[in-house]
Amino acid sequence: MPGLDNYTKLLLHCDGADESTTFTDSSSFAHTMTPAGSVKLDTEYKQFGSASGIGADDWGNLSASDSVDWFFNYNNLTIDLWLRFLSTGEFYIEQVLDYETYADTWCITITESSFKFELTQGGVSTFSIAASPTLSAGTFYHFELVRKGATSNDWLLFIDGVAQSVTITGDPSLSIPDYDAPLMIWPYLCNFDELRISNGIARHTENFTPETEAYPDDPVIICCLPISCSVTLNANIQMALKCVPILSTIIITAAVTQFTIQNPSLLYFFTLTGAPDGLADVVIPIKSFQARHRSGDPSYLSVVIPGLDYATAIAARSNGEMVIHMSKAMRGVIYHTEEIIRVELETIRTDDGSTNESITLDGHKTSTYPAKTIALEGVNYHSVNDGKKLYRCAAPNIYLRPGDTATYGGDSFTVGLVTYYVGNGQQSMEVSEADI
Question: In the CATH scheme, what is the code of domain 8-199?
Fold first, then answer.
């Protein structure tokens, strides 16, 4: 079984003590999960590990704050979990822009006789896929929703690894919007376990056998060095690397994650500014970052910092700005650096789990940039939906900004949104066309 990858945006093992209300996200993004009502851990019934989540008949819920991780857009996606009904139970995963109107939402609904995904926009159901299984209370079943493209045949519902006969309505090519809303999980009279949300990948495209153990927490580390090798890091630290035949080399330094992609190397530095608090700037080592970059609208940045060593320094700079710089280096010597995003620090979240500790910083800021023309490189995916182009590239472009004209082959368009992900030995950039 592969380890964690950058596509895994949420992973809930639901392990812990009986009746505990602590739910830990074991993905690299370490989202804070907030329970409400009766939702808690249950050690009597579980699929894996020490416990599962459970909800009674009071419509308790488990939530995570709004994040770019829940922005599926036109991406491939997979949402899977194990579920056990206590009696006539119901289970929902959703984002709802406004619960007063329920007009704009995506929602997964699971009951003993229904497994459904629905997208609603402006109060109108614009797409749905539904199956009608016959299930029983008291048994754990594995449920998986998969999107692998833009046609009706590219949406799949699996129960215990078997693709279901489905009814599809609406437009399967639609984008799942970037709702400014929390992720909500509603377990009504049911146990849930090993819940995973994957953004950017279709985990299965045909019948499969569900895993017989919990998904591992260890990240996938990719390198092109010989087997049984090690790398000496800039901070005189050695790290043994697991080697697989992929054309990337990963090196972790004291302050950055370094990706050797042919030549040159790309490095990322995170700085928290201190001037608003009368302090010096501080460069902080990070585990990963993700960003949503818009021109004229608030851009978003989230960074995950391993450990709690910098907690005091961060708290002292609570009015600072979060800045990501991207550098190009040759043979360990940096020869060019550009700031790729800057936002105002808004939230500081400390996650102190039983096995992992981390700090997550989030922020927004509105910025504008002079337009220029940039040729896209390393393109590995391209789609056109509702007339708007989307390109996925193997690495961020050090110069590209919203408002630029992006070119690839004979194609040309104005950039409206740039999304970055860097971490866990992975990096990618998605470039979406601006609204006309």
Answer: 2.60.120.200
